[in-house]
């Protein structure tokens, strides 16, 4: 690819854990990683494309749930623990809801779900697992679920 | 981002088309086999009775619909249909199933007849039709899209390097993508190793039952899994004074950089990392004898705080000297620069006040602001229009819950930002603050003594009256070759600070020889020692910085910072290039400082070069050669290089 340049504007986010998400190129990298992992799954397992998309969708669910909605705090100690009770999803954009980044991140699992179910021809049991995954992810990203811990799961002492 | 967006879409679409045409399920195809049996039986009337039976079998893996069998090969004049129809339609034919149809005809005349095959038509569902179209034409479409993409990108091929005052950093798009991917990979590997470590630790017992863990959760993840891998590029010990050339101690590691051991070997390296702007870091002919004298008179420490017994005549002289130099009525001096910011801000601001700070302010300011209990708002780096927007919004809203007016509003900016090498837009910011009646706090850590015609900092350089800046802060570490920090302001302010600031009341005062060094270096800068060395140093550092920066930009590096600023960061971006650049330069006896996340934003890792007045022209040329060759090796020349105008006479190439 020839040299395309983009301009990076410094964001006003002080939280080093989440401000990298506001720079150009993140969305494209995310989509490209999903796409290449589909290719990798296809080549390694030699399965049909539908099963490959289901595998990608479910592993995407596991990875994003673990890092966006389960792990709390930041991976460095500079900020002295002010974000220790917040998951990554609750930290981005300083807790503001319904920003562009949040909308994009909500749409991606839904699109993956549609691709996975379409290419498997809506057959069980893949449909059941896919639906469960997308339901959990989308509900976790609702504005009403900000800082909500259902039944005390993942709450602090 | 707007410019790159359509090209991204085109690139994505073309990749989708390529891969779909390569991987689309072309295994599903219908395959119809038909078998026609014609048997003749002779009738009594010497006429033939033809019985035709046709079997249609779907041997493929796809269901077909609307299968129509038409057998028009039997001419009406010759044959009479007796039983059955010559055509039939079936609604669907599943894969692997068989249908058959038979009919009988009687010949009317006695001839020799040659038949023809029957015609069978069928339909496949639309979804599959589209898929096959995609397979067939997908590669053509993708080639067309790639051509469009290439044509469009030719237009954007090589932008001119951005002007030195631009406030946005220009990143090549592919580099941004690969940097995200590299960090993702490093993060994934770190998580994998943590996972296995957790399993192994679960097996081995620990004797710390009942104790709480030191680090909560992921807190030390970055240190353990990313920083320790390249730890030999940071914290390098030196064993001489940080002059233009210094001795770097070699370290070895036996366990893959988890621990480093110092050896007794040293390497003499060119120093491009110390904040030695005016060259006072090494022995100076005017300063050093006076410092030794004061060491003999006052000894190395006052052993007390300022209010108890730690104020000597040197301290009083120093405060007067600094106030005169900076251009303010009075000043107070502290023993440490970081402490100056983090202990003053809580004294000045409290609950109910507002601190508006630049998004790239130093950690000491962030710490002080957080410790003060005031509300903090951040404005976009060096953007006066955004500062005005934030000010208007905050003044209109008032305090967070009660909406009462703010008690005080202070705007904190820096003279030169040490990670960008950029000068602050002080005139605009001061005018905005005057308009909205906010105080201005200027942190001149890197700019005092290094910029301005007589070295008095950004106010002199940008033509701002020092009476307009309410609080001027600075440190003595950078241009004066000493340690400590100062605050300069009105007499009432300094009096108040001396009563309340904890760094003045409880912290040890600045060491007397260090104070003498500052006094002497200020005298040299102002020319009060009777020579013109101060003016020479200031001219030298300006010349050196401009020369170095322009040469680097000509070579194709992305260098940040304004003209006249002695700090120049070279952008590296990729995390793997940080240790590569650092180690390769050290191998060639040039010591550089590389900065990565979280001191800088994730994408924007850089190598920061600090030019000094002690560097000679030969030193700079050697540094340029080394950086150029390492840059080629590591691949950080993101912009196209300008061609060098070479002089043909002589063997030395004159760099223009």
Automatic annotation (TrEMBL), chain A:
Which Gene Ontology cellular component terms are annotated? endoplasmic reticulum membrane
> What keywords are assigned to this protein?
Membrane, Transmembrane, Transmembrane helix
Q: Which domain of life is it from?
A: Eukaryota
Indicate the segments annotated as coiled coil, or none if absent: none
Per the record, membrane topology reads: Multi-pass membrane protein
Q: Where the protein is mainly located, per its record?
A: membrane
**PANTHER family, per this entry?**
ORMDL PROTEINS (PTHR12665)
Q: What is this protein called?
A: ORM1-like protein 3
UniProtKB/TrEMBL annotation, chain B:
Q: What is this protein called?
A: serine C-palmitoyltransferase
Q: PANTHER family in the record, alphabetically?
A: CLASS II AMINOTRANSFERASE/8-AMINO-7-OXONONANOATE SYNTHASE (PTHR13693), LD36009P (PTHR13693:SF3)
Q: Which Gene3D superfamilies match?
A: Aspartate Aminotransferase, domain 1, Type I PLP-dependent aspartate aminotransferase-like (Major domain)
| GO MF term list | pyridoxal phosphate binding; serine C-palmitoyltransferase activity
Aminotransferase class I/classII large domain ranges (all copies): 268-627
* Enzyme nomenclature, EC number: 2.3.1.50
* Catalyzed reactions: L-serine + hexadecanoyl-CoA + H(+) = 3-oxosphinganine + CO2 + CoA
Name the family.
Belongs to the class-II pyridoxal-phosphate-dependent aminotransferase family.
């Amino acid at each position: 690819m020839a040299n395309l340049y983009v301009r990076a504007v410094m964001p006003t986010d002080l939280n080093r854990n989440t401000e990298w998400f506001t720079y150009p190129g993140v969305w494209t990298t995310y989509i490209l990683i999903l796409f290449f992992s589909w290719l990798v799954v296809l080549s390694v397992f030699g399965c049909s494309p539908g099963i490959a998309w289901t595998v990608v969708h479910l592993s995407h669910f596991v990875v994003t749930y673990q890092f966006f909605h389960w792990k709390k705090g930041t991976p460095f100690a500079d900020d002295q623990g002010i974000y220790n009770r917040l998951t990554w999803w609750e930290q981005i954009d300083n807790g503001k809801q319904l920003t562009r980044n949040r909308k994009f991140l909500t749409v991606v699992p839904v699109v993956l779900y549609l691709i996975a179910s379409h290419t498997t021809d809506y057959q069980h049991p893949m449909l059941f697992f896919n639906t469960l995954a997308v339901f959990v992810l989308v509900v976790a990203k609702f504005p009403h679920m900000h800082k909500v811990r259902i039944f005390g799961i993942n709450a602090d002492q | 981002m707007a410019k790159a967006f359509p090209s991204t879409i085109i690139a994505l679409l073309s990749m989708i088309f390529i891969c779909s045409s390569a991987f689309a399920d072309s295994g599903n195809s219908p395959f119809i086999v038909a078998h026609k049996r014609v048997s003749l039986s002779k009738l009594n009337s010497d006429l033939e009775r033809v019985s035709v039976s046709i079997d249609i079998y779907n041997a493929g893996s796809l269901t077909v619909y609307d299968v129509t069998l038409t057998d028009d090969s039997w001419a009406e004049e010759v044959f009479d249909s007796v039983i059955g129809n010559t055509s039939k339609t079936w609604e669907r034919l599943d894969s692997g199933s068989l249908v058959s149809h038979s009919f009988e005809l009687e010949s009317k005349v006695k001839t020799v007849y040659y038949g023809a095959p029957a015609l069978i038509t069928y339909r496949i569902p639309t979804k599959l039709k589209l898929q096959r179209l995609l397979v067939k034409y997908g590669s053509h479409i993708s080639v067309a899209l790639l051509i469009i993409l290439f044509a469009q990108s030719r237009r954007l091929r090589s932008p001119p390097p951005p002007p030195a005052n631009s406030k946005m950093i220009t990143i090549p798009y592919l580099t941004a993508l690969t940097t995200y991917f590299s960090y993702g990979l490093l993060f994934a590997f770190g998580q994998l190793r943590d996972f296995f470590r957790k399993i192994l630790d679960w097996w081995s017992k620990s004797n710390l039952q009942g104790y709480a863990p030191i680090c909560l959760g992921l807190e030390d993840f970055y240190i353990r899994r990313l920083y320790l891998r390249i730890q030999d590029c940071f914290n390098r010990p030196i064993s001489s004074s940080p002059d233009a050339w210094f001795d770097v101690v070699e370290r070895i590691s036996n366990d893959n950089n988890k621990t480093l051991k110092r050896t007794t070997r040293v390497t003499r390296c060119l120093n491009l990392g110390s904040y030695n702007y005016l060259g006072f870091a090494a022995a100076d002919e005017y300063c050093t004898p006076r410092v030794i004298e004061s060491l003999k008179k006052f000894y190395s420490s006052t052993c007390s705080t300022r209010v108890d017994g730690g104020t000597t005549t040197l301290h009083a002289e120093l405060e007067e000297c600094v106030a005169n130099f900076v251009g303010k009525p009075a000043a107070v001096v502290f023993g440490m620069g970081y402490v100056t910011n983090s202990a003053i801000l809580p004294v000045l601001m409290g609950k109910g006040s507002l601190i508006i700070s630049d998004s790239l302010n130093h950690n000491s300011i962030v710490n002080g602001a957080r410790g003060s209990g005031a509300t903090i708002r951040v404005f976009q780096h060096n953007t006066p229009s955004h500062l005005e927007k934030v000010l208007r919004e905050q003044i209109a809203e008032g305090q967070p819950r009660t909406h009462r007016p703010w008690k005080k509003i202070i705007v904190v900016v820096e003279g030169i930002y040490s990670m960008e090498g950029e000068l602050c837009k002080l005139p605009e910011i001061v005018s905005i603050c005057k308009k909205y009646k906010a105080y201005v706090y200027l942190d001149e850590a890197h700019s005092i003594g290094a910029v301005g015609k007589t070295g008095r900092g950004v106010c002199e350089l940008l033509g701002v009256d020092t009476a307009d800046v309410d609080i001027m802060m600075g440190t003595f570490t950078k241009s004066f070759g000493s340690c400590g920090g100062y605050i300069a302001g009105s007499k009432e302010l300094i009096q108040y600070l001396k009563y309340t600031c904890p760094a003045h009341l409880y912290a040890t005062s600045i060491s007397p020889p260090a104070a003498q060094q500052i006094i002497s270096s200020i005298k040299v800068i102002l020319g009060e020692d009777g020579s013109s060395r101060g003016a020479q140093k200031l001219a030298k550092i300006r010349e050196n910085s401009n020369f170095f920066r322009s040469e680097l930009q000509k070579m194709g590096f992305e260098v940040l910072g304004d003209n006249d600023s002695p700090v120049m960061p070279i952008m590296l971006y990729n995390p793997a290039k940080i240790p590569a650049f650092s180690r390769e330069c050290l191998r060639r006896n040039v010591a550089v400082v590389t900065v990565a996340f979280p001191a800088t934003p994730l994408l924007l890792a850089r190598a920061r070069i600090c030019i000094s007045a002690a560097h000679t022209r030969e030193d700079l040329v050697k540094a340029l050669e080394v950086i150029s060759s390492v840059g080629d090796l590591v691949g950080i020349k993101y912009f196209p290089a300008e061609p060098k105008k070479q002089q043909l006479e002589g063997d030395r190439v004159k760099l223009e």
